[in-house]
Every structure is written in structure tokens, then in C-alpha cells.
Amino acid sequence: MMVCETTRKGRKCTFMTAQGCVFNGGSCVEIVEACSGCNRSEQHETGWFCSAFPDPTVKWKHGNCNLATHVQATANESKAKINPIKASKRRGK
């Protein structure tokens, strides 16, 4: 890993190479409003950035970010479909 020279200067980054930043667009993207309050957001001299992912908008595109520390996952408890024929057989035993 090399040290970032674009947006998060001084931090090790997997997207930095000798030719510069190879991430899509050439640099990390600032956090979105949904990221505010997350423990992974860091302030740098160029703005606020996610420490875990270079483009937070992609993580929030289809719902909640799976890396967000400020969002609680809700478990969807759905009752399993019961086959009435098998249930009647179980009662007969």
C-alpha cells in the first residue's frame, strides 16, 4: 500500500500506485449526508471522507450501507410457511 496524495493525504491507500490514484475518477469521493454520525467518517484538510470505502454513494444506493456504524440492522422475522398436510400428520402422532 502506498500513501494517499490526493484527498486523504498521509493515509495508506490501496488505490494509490506510482502513477497516482487509480480509483474511478482519480480520488475518493466525500461522504454523503446519510454517512453523518458514522464512526468511519474522517475529516481531512480536503473534506470528510469514509475510512472504509472510497465512494460512499455506492454503499447507500440500494438501502443502508453495510459498513455504517450508526445504523442498526433490523431483523425481519417472518413466520415460516406451514404445510397444512404435514401439520395434520404431526398432530395425529
Describe the main β-sheet briefly.
2 strands, antiparallel
Arithmetic mean of pLDDT: 83
Q: Approximately how much beta-strand content do the residues carry?
A: 15-25%
Q: Which secondary-structure class do the elements indicate?
A: alpha+beta
Number of helices: 2
Unreliable spans? none
Number of strands: 6
Alpha-carbon distance between the termini?
65 Å
Strand order of the largest sheet: 1-2
The ordered string of helix (H) and strand (E) elements is EEEEEEHH
Helix content: 10-25%
Structure description:
14% of the residues lie in helices and 17% in strands. The protein has one domain. It has 93 residues and is of the alpha+beta class. The chain has a two-stranded antiparallel sheet. A two-stranded antiparallel ribbon has the order 3-4. A two-stranded antiparallel ribbon has the order 5-6. 16% of the residues are buried.
